[in-house]
Amino acid sequence: MRVTMADVAHSGEARFRIETIEDYELATQRIATLDVASPGEEEQRERDALVEAVRQWDRKHDDVTGWKDRP
């Protein structure tokens, strides 16, 4: 993934960009890990940012709705 949580600590904002299927898998695994833990504020921001990155990936790679974007 393009951004690490170390970068987040400096900026105060959690944003991720999933670029590969491997990134996608790592993101979903991390979300699952954060879901079973009792997260603090930083972990909740990380989880929210990962969920948004996964949603963006899904929208871009969704074969069911992707046909609408093709000419």
Tell me what the structure shows.
It is elongated and about 35 Å long. Helix 2 packs antiparallel against helix 3 (41-61). It has helices at residues 5-11, 21-36, 41-61, 63-66. It is an all-alpha fold and 71 residues long. The relative contact order is 0.16. The chain is built from four helices and no strands. The longest helix has 21 residues, at 41-61. The chain has one domain.
Give the secondary structure arrangement, pairings included:
Elements: H1 5-11, H2 21-36, H3 41-61, H4 63-66
Helix pairs in contact: 2-3
Any key phrases for this structure?
71 residues, mainly alpha
Contiguous low-pLDDT stretches (5 residues minimum) are none
Distance between the termini: 30 Å
Cα Rg: 14 Å
Number of helices: 4
Count of distinct structural domains: 1
Biggest sheet record: none
Helicity range: 55-70%
The succession of helices and strands, N to C, reads: HHHH
Shape: elongated
Strand fraction: under 5%
The SS-based structural class is mainly alpha
Number of strands: 0
Mean pLDDT: 78
